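#structure-requests
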Amino acid sequence: MVHRRTASLLAVLGLLAVASVVAGAAVDAPPTATFTNEAGTTYRVTAFAVADTREASLTNVRVTDLDGERRPTTVGELRWPARYRSVELADDGLDARRIRVAPGEETTVTVGTWEPGDVTVFLVEELRGNETVARARIESCPQRQQEHGLTFETGGGSGYSTCASSLDWLPS
């Protein structure tokens, strides 16, 4: 016959095992990003993660200029707003999320493949008919449990990044 202490100990260990699996999924979860569109135009956002800011800046994209010419450029060149017809990732193998945010919408996405220490990149396109104003935002945060947000407004916008974890004591 199993003693009550042994049974209680086994039950507690079982609960701890389940809690550790659930907590592990939350701890290593990739960043989330919320996009709120308070402007009168639609936005398209491409979100992905890479190893560091240098790789982020050197990530290749294809743009179509206002004359219809397609040409290569890099994310680093899009750190300042530029006018194009479209912007697409050119590098293969990136686990990117691409979404459209219509006026009045709010959308939350999980950034694709991410490891602690990676940087998160957002390619933001304001879709204005045949013209797109594109820019890139690179968020460098080595912490777990990241949250990012961008609010699009007529004539501008704002953003935030939460780069703090209550779990800093865990190894990366």
